[in-house]
Amino acid sequence: MASHSAHIPSDKRFLIFFDFDETIVDETSDDMVVQAAPGQHLPGWLKDTYQPGRYNEYMQRVLVYLAEQGVTESDMRSIMEKLPSTPGMLTLFQFLRTRPPQDFEVVLVSDANTFFIESWLRRVGARQLFHRIFTNPATFNKDGRLVMRPFHSHDCQRCPENMCKQVVVRDYVARRTQERGRPYQRVFYVGDGANDFCPALSLGPRDVVFPRRDFPMHRLITETHEAMPGEFKAVTVPWVNAEDVLQRLRKLVAE
Q: Angle 100-104-109 (CA atoms, 0-180°, nearest 5)?
């Protein structure tokens, strides 16, 4: 689900992408919503329906179950609003917010869903920071059930069926470059998971990737450098605290 980019000024110097779960927030929102279930856990028969690569379909079944158990929109929003941010992330957001307006175009790309993400962003006052949000659309139907749909379909063998972030990032960068009439000075990507590795592969040698240290994205980058030198082109800056990202960005914008 994404809003249109026509209103985004075309003078931005840098484009920065953020993942959501375990990057912006220090939890996985899909896991945390289970706290709303009876006994704060899912029955075994439901968990057994999960199939690799088809997590989105599994979460759709989880949301049906939660609705059947009487879990409301308010219940879910309350859980999302309590998710802790990762260390330093709100400081990084403040840095981006206070930069000159021509510095950063900020985009969120996540395999969570619109309701979970927007509930949290609005709670911390960060919704306006993001020019675009790409994620699985989720809305409440007339029965009060959260209905989630897949973001798109794609042919990537590396990613879950409902979202390849590389397709999202590549298409967005290409479209915005055409709209602007020139490329960005640099593209940045802040993430943690295996599905953040795929989009990072599409970035070039002037771009910077910020993988959360010792999380799957970081491990995959390290393995790729060892197995296929030169395959991964972007500069890699691992982070433990988002202020690590802030410090590097501060140096780069000053160049």
A: 150
Cβ contacts of residue 71 below 8 Å, gap of 6+? 36, 37
19 catalytic residue (yes or no):
yes
Torsion of CA 11, 183, 228, 162, to 10 degrees: 70
- Which is catalytic among the residues 11, 19, 48, 111? 19
pTM over 0.70: yes
In the predicted model, is pLDDT for residue 3 greater than 50?
no
pLDDT for res 160 = 66
Which amino acid is located at 73 in the chain?
A: E
One of 21, 30, 103, 244 is an active-site residue; which one? Answer: 21
Residues 35-60 pLDDT 10s: 999 999 999 999 999 988 788 889 88
Q: In the sheet that 14-18 helps form, which strands lie side by side, from edge to edge?
A: 132-136, 104-113, 14-18, 186-191, 208-211, 235-236
